[in-house]
Design a protein that fits this description.
The protein is α+β, with helices and mostly antiparallel strands and about 200 residues long. It has five helices and eight strands. Helix content is about 15%, strand content about 60%. The radius of gyration is 22 Å and the shape is elongated.
């Protein structure tokens, strides 16, 4: 009987520890982004850096974040293979020298909502959010780069590993940013960010 009572009294402790988490925490992360769709036809893997805060509200985590990503162009031989069907067609030869150092950058602000599962040392979660992303790219049919701001949607999943007073973070997302510039080679900008970070 005493063991049963002790067990019942100890059961709420993990939940209490979770609810006692600080209401505001700092989150920093970085990693790589895998381009997909027509965006992948012209770009290699990208790198990213993120910073934000975590606001604990009940069992949910609100995560406003800022993110910067940079993608280099593929090797010249790979790019030229696909230029015949791109805006501007074969006339893009004048851009050949520029492609060697062409880049696409993404600067975005996001409002994400994270739903954690469990309260153990390793804690899985799912997240989703919306944001606005400024896209600047040299991947155009002219010598002029384009820059545009568009809404963005992202969904993902990951897990956290408690490391004393901080937590390690590993997550992957699907990020979608529609583009409408008629000069851009790519008409959809979809990436899969894989992120490693810490929550303080």
């Amino acid at each position: 009987m005493r063991r049963l009572l002790a067990t019942l009294l100890l059961l709420p402790l993990p939940l209490a520890a979770q609810s006692a988490e600080r209401p505001i925490r700092l989150l920093v992360s970085g990693g790589m982004q895998l381009p997909t769709g027509s965006f992948a036809d012209y770009h290699d893997f990208g790198v990213q850096a993120n910073a934000g805060v975590q606001l604990n509200v009940g069992g949910l985590r609100l995560r406003p974040e800022l993110s910067y990503s940079r993608f280099g162009f593929k090797e010249l031989s790979e790019v030229l293979t696909g230029l015949a069907g791109a805006p501007g067609g074969a006339s893009t030869g004048a851009r050949r020298d520029a492609y060697s150092d062409a880049v696409t950058t993404l600067l975005g602000g996001f409002a994400n909502l994270e739903l954690p599962f469990g309260s153990g040392r390793v804690q899985p979660f799912v997240l989703a959010g919306v944001g606005a992303v400024k896209v600047a790219s040299d991947a155009t049919a002219s010598t002029v780069s384009f820059s545009d701001v568009n809404a963005s949607l992202n969904v993902g999943a990951g897990f956290r590993l408690r490391l004393g007073g901080i937590s390690g973070l590993i997550e992957a997302r699907l990020n979608n940013v529609p583009t409408g510039d008629p000069q851009a080679f790519f008409k959809d900008l979809r990436t899969i960010p894989v992120t490693f970070g810490f929550v303080f």
